[in-house]
Design goal:
Blueprint lengths: L9 H23 L2 E7 L5 H12 L5 E7 L4 H7 L5 E5 L8 H8 L9 E5 L16 E7 L6 H4 L1 H6 L2 E5 L11 H11 L4 E4 L8 H17 L19
Length: about 240
């Protein structure tokens, strides 16, 4: 009988619980003065290489650590640790994203009082990571040239929630039909406030501009008074099923 049936919206409750956890984590990071950057992209776009080049560019100014998320392996965390940066590997065991609870668990392994920036390398995926607020101050995504310029059309939520788009592997442009201007128009239509930087983690091209933006964001965060208002992070929405 219909009167005996109870409907429970599981996914809605999961997101509500995650939002509460993310809010609490963000408050803790503000108290500790630790800037959390959530970096998202598809597999093979160059997340780890981009993180390493960013650290190389800014390590004289800020104290870094990295949370590496993968379904399996410790390869990326080992690469970060090899350059003397604290790294924690989060093995998701099949989950295609990180949520605020997972990030909170990873941060427990770090001394936040000794850090200015923690970069979260999210699981390689253009769908699920965009649905979950990790508690980060800013969200960044990478789109590599070999992936094609149509990704804003196929994965609009990822572009909507990201504060920054790094177009990586631009040294590959001469060998590709990637239409940079078309991609920009598509991305900006989804998110007019998005910052876009053209970079190459291999050659270092464009990293000065990207590093300058990140340095300003981190400095503003570190110098802000407790509870001071800042521009809101990208809004996370649930529109698909992982």
């Amino acid at each position: 009988m219909s009167d005996a049936v109870r409907l429970i919206e599981i996914k809605e409750e999961i997101h509500a619980d995650n939002d509460r956890t993310a809010k609490a984590l963000r408050a803790k990071l503000e108290e500790k003065k630790t800037f959390l950057l959530n970096l998202m992209s598809s597999p093979g776009s160059g997340k780890t290489s981009t993180i390493l080049k960013t650290i190389e560019t800014l390590r004289d100014r800020f104290r870094f650590a990295v949370l590496e998320a993968d379904i399996d392996s410790t390869v990326d965390a080992e690469a970060v640790a090899a350059v003397g940066i604290p790294a924690v590997q989060l093995r998701t065991g099949g989950f295609c994203h990180l949520d605020a609870a997972m990030v909170t668990k990873g941060l427990e392994a770090l001394d936040l009082d000794a850090l200015d920036i923690v970069v979260v390398e999210n699981v390689g995926n253009l769908v699920c990571p965009a649905e979950f607020d990790t508690g980060a101050v800013r969200n960044a995504m990478i789109l590599s040239v070999p992936e094609g310029d149509d990704k804003p059309l196929k994965y609009p939520l990822m572009f909507t929630v990201s504060d920054v788009l790094l177009v990586n592997k631009i040294d590959y442009l001469p060998f590709s039909n990637f239409d940079l201007e078309a991609m920009r128009k598509r991305a900006m239509k989804l998110n007019p406030q998005m910052e876009i930087f053209e970079v190459s983690a291999r050659t270092g091209q464009g990293f000065e501009q990207w590093a300058s933006w990140l340095a300003r964001e981190v400095s503003d965060f570190l110098n802000s008074a407790p509870g001071a208002s800042r521009p809101a992070i990208g809004k996370f929405l649930s529109i698909s099923r992982c």
